[in-house]
Amino acid sequence: MQKDDERLVHSRGEEFLQVFKKGAEFTQELLRENERLRFRLLELEKSQGPGEAMPEAELKKLSERIADLEQEKQEILDRIRHVEEENQDFAARYLEIEDENNNLANLYIASYQLHSTLDFKEVLQIITEIIINLIGAEEFAIMLLDEKSDELQAVSTEGIERSEIPSFRLGKGTIGTVAESGESHFASDFESYERDFSAPMVCIPLKIKEHVIGVLAIYKLLMQKKEFAAVDYELFTLLAGHAATAIFSSRLYSDSERKLSTIQGFIDLLTK
Amino acid sequence: MSDYNVLIVEDSPTMRQLIAFALKRIRGVRIVEANDGVDGLKKLSSERFDLILTDINMPIMDGLKLVSLVRNDANYKSIPIVVITTEGAQEDRERALALGANDYITKPIQPTKILDVAKNLLRIV
Questions:
Q1: pLDDT mean over A67-85
Q2: Are A137 and A131 in contact (CB under 8 A)?
Q3: SS3 label, residue B107
Q4: ipTM score here?
Q5: Helical H segments across B11-121, by residue range
Q6: Can you tell me the distance from the alpha carbon of A130 to that of A201, in angstroms, rounded to the nearest whole number?
């Protein structure tokens, strides 16, 4: 769809360029014709000699021809102006599509990488890479919900020691509330935000449908990252769903692998 | 036969994929990936490259060491180098440029910026 749009924009651009070129050629032709007529007029005036008037009919015909050409020239100029305006609109639209294309590529690559492994540690590493490289966060924690104790605990951190992050009860404080409600939290003013482990700058629930399995808490952005762009919010939405699924699947896989090896151990013991 | 050979030195597969995506808009580009500075040097010795894009923070050998080694090697010193990093401080930028990097891009990654810088260094109009 995106490629079709780009192709359409490109082909429309080509068409307008052709019209523009034809218009320029036609204007040149008109100017030459105008010049030729003026020259002819001068020649006629000369050939008539002083005091000899040009025939009325001839003069009228030439004047009409000049008026027609002037009108055509004006129409061509108007058309060129219109085409130029349209070209500018298409150029702006092309840039928008280019941006959208880049954003979609970022989202696609993030999603592709998240589901490229079933190793729990690798999944956490990929989430960390996405948050640093695509969102531009410097200090953050990935916290998972222990459904037995209803507590959220950090399983991976960047820029801060994992031991520094306390555990939070479901429903308590900013982190607990985000985990309970499934609604993201964004601090009202990023510039004046001061690090508080219980109230992060950004807190995104990691959820599979409506089931929250943890949160992503961001405490500091990279120094060159001053604010979030529209694509960042799309990345947060993607992380909320895809990261949760990737974490959940990898944990399930690790558990089943562990159980399988235990069962295999028993079988080996019994059959020996 | 490719028109431009580009080497991406980056330890994160996600980042390598993102950078490669941005560069693939250049017609005739061929991309070779390396995991760190040592791997990058190994790949450099195996073929001719027109551009190197490197991260700074990498295991085994970081990007700044790679920039320094490339600039001091008669065989590679003319290859343009772009540093792509999370380090946004002015002194980090100045350090990389002083070592011989041609350009310095900070993360979060912006494909358009990478493409513009690469085109400029590859002299593509």
A1: 94
A2: yes
A3: coil
A4: 0.85
A5: 13-23, 37-46, 63-71, 90-99, 111-121
A6: 18
B14·A136 Cβ contact <8 A: no
Identify whether the C-beta of residue A206 lies closer than 8 Å to the C-beta of residue A247: yes
Query: What one-character DSSP code corresponds to residue B36?
Result: S
Tell me if chain B has a CB within 8 Å of the CB of A2.
Answer: no
The DSSP call for residue A26 is: H
Cβ-contact A167, A178 below 8 angstroms: no
Chain A hits for B24, Cβ within 8 Å: none
Q: Residues of B at the A interface (Cβ-Cβ below 8 Å)?
A: 12-15, 17-18, 21-22, 86, 88-89, 106-112
Distance, CA of A260 to CA of A237 (rounded, Å): 34
Nearest to A95 by CA among B77, B116, B30, B7: B116
Question: Are residues A218 and A201 in contact, defined by beta-carbon separation less than 8 angstroms?
Answer: yes
Element (H, E) at B81: strand B81-85
Q: Which residue of B has its CA nearest to A138?
A: B86
CA A156/CA A137 separation, integer angstroms = 14
Give CA separation, A66 vs A26, A70, A78, A160, in Å: 15, 6, 18, 81
Q: Where do the structural domains in chain B lie, given as residue ranges?
A: 4-121
Query: Is residue A197 very low, low, confident or very high in pLDDT (cuts 50, 70, 90)?
Result: very high
Band (B121; pLDDT cuts 50, 70, 90): very high
CATH level 3 topology of B4-121: Rossmann fold (3.40.50)
Contact of A189 with A202, CB cutoff 8 Å: no
- Nearest partner of A62 among A31, A36, A25, A27, judged by Cα: A36
Minimal Cβ distance to A109: which of B21, B108, B112: B21
Residue in this structure with the two tokens 């949160």, named with its chain if needed? A215
Please report, for residues A82, A135, A138, A194, the alpha-carbon distance to residue A188 in angstroms, rounded to integers and kept in the order given.
Answer: 45, 18, 19, 12
Residue A133 touches partner B, C-beta closer than 8 Å: yes
